[in-house]
């Protein structure tokens, strides 16, 4: 890993948010980065020769409020991308947003009586949260969600999964990996790309960066295309600080 970074001309570090910078918590509104992750992201973002990006399943506006520092933010699993002062939205996702929002509203109504069943309307995608739903109600929530998406989403929408969530989004071949490729294409040739994430939607990003770049999966709960692992969000800050040190050493050598 060190050789890849030392031989590179620059460094692009892409980071997932929930489960990577912020520990997983029951209430999605309560998720915040650990203090050491926030500090390490800020320091890395200020390091010459480093570009930092956060690539999240959250809505762009939501994730931007939660972590300071990065120059680039991608929300809704890469369907919206803020960089160079403007926001690009996937055109098909934009067209299907009304349908997603209607479905979220319907699910909110239909699932209102299920204790702690939260529906997160993220405009381009929607999330049904199962984490705090009583075990006895989970099958019903899954069934209702699938039925409504089949009925009102047709071929336009699909359901994917994440950590104790059902994600409703446009049925298009676009994910975090595509967003990371777009971001990386703007970097100078020879830039090393690092991606750190913890969940199933991060796998396309690991595949996008490996084998030339470096994928780091947080947690050991599932197989991964990433070549490296750290145990938890608490370990991410030390990786980021190490990347900063390597980049500073490399910078001193080329100056
Ligand atoms: O790509 P990410 O930045 O990791 O976003 C993925 C989803 O993260 C959030 O849900 C997850 O974190 C919650 C807070 O810790 C947790 O309660 C939930 O069970 C997790 O799945 C977020 O709320 C979703 O919108 C994101 O898609």
From TrEMBL:
<dbReference type="GO" id="GO:0004805">
    <property type="term" value="F:trehalose-phosphatase activity"/>
</dbReference>
<dbReference type="InterPro" id="IPR003337">
    <property type="entry name" value="Trehalose_PPase"/>
</dbReference>
<dbReference type="InterPro" id="IPR044651">
    <property type="entry name" value="OTSB-like"/>
</dbReference>
<keyword id="KW-0479">Metal-binding</keyword>
<dbReference type="InterPro" id="IPR006379">
    <property type="entry name" value="HAD-SF_hydro_IIB"/>
</dbReference>
<dbReference type="GO" id="GO:0005992">
    <property type="term" value="P:trehalose biosynthetic process"/>
</dbReference>
<dbReference type="InterPro" id="IPR036412">
    <property type="entry name" value="HAD-like_sf"/>
</dbReference>
<comment type="function">
    <text>Removes the phosphate from trehalose 6-phosphate to produce free trehalose.</text>
</comment>
<comment type="pathway">
    <text>Glycan biosynthesis; trehalose biosynthesis.</text>
</comment>
<protein>
    <recommendedName>
        <fullName>Trehalose 6-phosphate phosphatase</fullName>
        <ecNumber>3.1.3.12</ecNumber>
    </recommendedName>
</protein>
<keyword id="KW-0460">Magnesium</keyword>
<dbReference type="Pfam" id="PF02358">
    <property type="entry name" value="Trehalose_PPase"/>
</dbReference>
<comment type="similarity">
    <text>Belongs to the trehalose phosphatase family.</text>
</comment>
<dbReference type="InterPro" id="IPR023214">
    <property type="entry name" value="HAD_sf"/>
</dbReference>
<dbReference type="GO" id="GO:0046872">
    <property type="term" value="F:metal ion binding"/>
</dbReference>
<keyword id="KW-0378">Hydrolase</keyword>
């Amino acid at each position: 890993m060190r050789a890849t970074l030392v031989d590179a001309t620059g460094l692009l570090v892409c980071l997932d948010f929930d489960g990577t910078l912020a520990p997983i918590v029951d209430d999605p509104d309560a998720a915040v980065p650990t203090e050491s992750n926030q500090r390490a992201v800020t320091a890395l973002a200020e390091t010459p020769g480093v570009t930092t990006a956060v690539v999240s399943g959250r809505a762009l506006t939501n994730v931007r409020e939660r972590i300071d520092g990065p120059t680039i933010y991608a929300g809704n699993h890469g369907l919206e991308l803020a960089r160079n002062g403007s926001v690009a939205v996937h055109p098909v996702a934009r067209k299907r947003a009304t349908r997603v929002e209607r479905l979220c509203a319907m699910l909110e109504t239909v699932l209102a009586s299920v204790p702690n069943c939260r529906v997160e309307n993220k405009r381009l995608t929607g999330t049904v949260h199962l984490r705090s739903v009583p075990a006895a109600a989970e099958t019903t929530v899954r069934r209702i969600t699938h039925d409504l998406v089949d009925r009102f989403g047709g071929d336009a929408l699909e359901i994917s999964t994440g950590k104790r969530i059902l994600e409703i989004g446009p049925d298009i071949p676009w994910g975090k990996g595509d967003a990371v490729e777009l971001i990386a294409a703007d970097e100078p040739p020879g830039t090393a790309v690092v991606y750190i994430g913890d969940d199933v939607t991060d796998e396309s990003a690991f595949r996008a960066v490996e084998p030339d770049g470096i994928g780091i999966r947080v947690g050991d709960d599932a197989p991964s295309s990433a070549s490296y692992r750290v145990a938890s969000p608490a370990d991410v800050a030390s990786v980021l600080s190490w990347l900063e040190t390597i980049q500073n050493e490399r910078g001193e050598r080329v100056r």
